[in-house]
Amino acid sequence: MPVDTAPMPTASVAISVKQARNLALCGQGFEQDDNRPVTKRRIMKAIRKTNMLQVDSVNVLTRAHYMPVFSRLGAYDPAMLDDIVWGKSRERKLFEYWGHEASMIPVEDYPLYRWRMEDAKQGLGTWGRIARIQREKPELIQGILDHIERNGPVGSSDLEAKGASSSQWWGWSETKTAMEYLFWSGQVMAQKRRSSFERIYDLPHRIIGDAAHDPAPIRIEAQSDLICKGIAAMGIATEADLRKYFRLPTADVKECLIKLVEEGRLLCADVEGWKQAGYLCPHVNPRARAKPTCLMVPFDPVMWERDRVERIFDFNYRIEIYVPAEKRQYGYYVLPFMLNGEFVARVDLKSERKKGVLLVQSAHLEDGCNQGDVAGPLMTELRRLASFLGLENGVEIAGDNAFSRYLGSVPTL
Question: Origin, by domain of life (predicted)?
Answer without folding.
Answer: Bacteria
